[in-house]
Amino acid sequence: MWILRGGTTCVAGTCRCEANCAGRSCGDDGCGGSCGSCPGSLSCIGGACGCEAGTTACAGVCCAAGLACVSGRCCAPSWRRTFSGVFAEGLSRASDGTLWIAGRVGAPASFVTGDRAWISSLDACGTLTSQTSWLPSSMPRATATHIATRTTARVPSSPLAIVGFGGADGNLDGLVSTLMTSPVRVTRDITLPASGSDDLYWQSTQSPDGLLWSAGQTNSQVGTCASVSLASPSTGTVCTWNIFSSCIGGGTFGTSIGHDGGVWFTGAHGNSAFVARYPSFGCAATPGCTCAPTLVREFGAPGTVSTTGRSVVAGSARTLVAGYAFLNGTDAAAVVMGVTADGTVSFGSPWNPTTIGDAFLGAAFVDGPSPTLYAVGLRGWDGLGNTAFAQGVLAAYDANTLTQRWVVSVPNAGGCWGVVGDDAGGVIVACGGSTSSTVRRCTSAGVCPP
């Protein structure tokens, strides 16, 4: 009588081992063979490829303990990149994790002849991957203030476009430069003239039809105007108009695709903050063009004498605004606001730790189980000189209730202008100091590297 052991079969009077890989992708097949091997640094654990305890799976590899998986790369959970002799303002993050930073090369605390517009890129771990600077023809100085973004996720525009301004004293003009990224080089500079005086452009967004919308602050004989510029990166044609018929002070400072898919702007008109929404299709970048807004709403934070919107981002159910409001002639508080599609405005409590200037200058929205509005800016600024001399701050708000969760000072930094979230819960912050600029990855709890 033949007695067969488990896993064996009797074939022609001989016991033969039967390999068994059911439910297994790796490891011993029971007969001295293998069910498969694991790629890279993955280990075979219980018949499946995975990572040992204390490590993290990341795009087919295992990140060592203490590292974070960011956009498929094993990265330090916090890092700092310093750019000497550069003033950085704009910050955006591509879907592959690439970070783009815009600013200018020159003394960070001043803007003088010879300063050059500048852009740099970092990978998801903060390693420098490219940078270039340029001076548009006929402009003795130039600065880049923002990377144009598109969609509610605020990924960089395509082609990559940078907004800023440049020129001589008393007659600065807006500037949109389009770039190739491999290698990085400028392919077209589009001038955005609006008056014979200083015209400054701060942010830009790209609508689904490929046009670039820029937020500007232009000058007229009676005051500063809240303006919009619409440019075609393919033809270089451009038109500019004022949102309001009166130029009573202020400007348009922030723009983004809003939660409803429209092109949203924010800024100040006189003593009021405002939002304006334009259609994402149907406007044309032709000389002398205008485009009618589908919403214009002016408002002020309760208990303040004036309010300014500086940055606008799409939330999940409303568009979110970060800025500042003056409680009196010298004391400004940082504020956040939410605006629904019908123009209903709600306010968070003003953040006012000092009796001089406290303000938010940039914003980012991160969705998830706890939707968060991140805001960056400065505190304790006397309003004199460049914001490079201010103390940078990073704050987190509940995006649904606009309740502040925490606020921290960004160590050893001037005013902070740019903020984005990444796919691993990190918060990237760009700040411009008096001698150099920094880009840092902070934690979602507000811990930033020194």
Describe this structure in words.
The protein has 450 residues and is mainly beta. Helix content is 0%, strand content 53%. The protein has no helices and 38 strands. The protein has strands at 8-11, 14-17, 43-45, 48-50, 56-58, 61-63, 68-70, 73-75, 79-84, 86-93, 99-105, 116-122, 128-134, 142-147, 149-150, 155-156, 160-168, 171-181, 184-192, 200-206, 212-219, 224-231, 238-242, 250-257, 263-269, 272-278, 295-299, 306-314, 319-326, 332-339, 345-347, 357-366, 372-381, 391-398, 404-409, 415-421, 427-432, 436-442. A hairpin with a 4-residue loop joins strand 21 and strand 22 (224-231). It is elongated, with a radius of gyration of 26 Å.
Average pLDDT: 92
Measured as a percent range, the helix fraction is under 10%
Which oligomerization state do the chains in this entry correspond to? single chain
* β-strand amount: over 45%
Radius of gyration: 26 Å
Terminal residue distance: 78 Å
Query: Largest sheet, described in full?
Result: 6 strands, mixed
Task: Return residue spans where pLDDT drops below 50 for at least 5 consecutive residues.
Answer: 1-6
Helix vs. strand class? mainly beta
Report the principal-axis shape. elongated
Tally the beta strands: 38
Order of the strands making up the biggest sheet: 16-15-20-21-22-23
Q: How many individual helices?
A: 0
Chart the SSEs and their pairings.
Elements (H helix, E strand, L loop, with lengths): L7 E4 L2 E4 L25 E3 L2 E3 L5 E3 L2 E3 L4 E3 L2 E3 L3 E6 L1 E8 L5 E7 L10 E7 L5 E7 L7 E6 L1 E2 L4 E2 L3 E9 L2 E11 L2 E9 L7 E7 L5 E8 L4 E8 L6 E5 L7 E8 L5 E7 L2 E7 L16 E5 L6 E9 L4 E8 L5 E8 L5 E3 L9 E10 L5 E10 L9 E8 L5 E6 L5 E7 L5 E6 L3 E7 L8
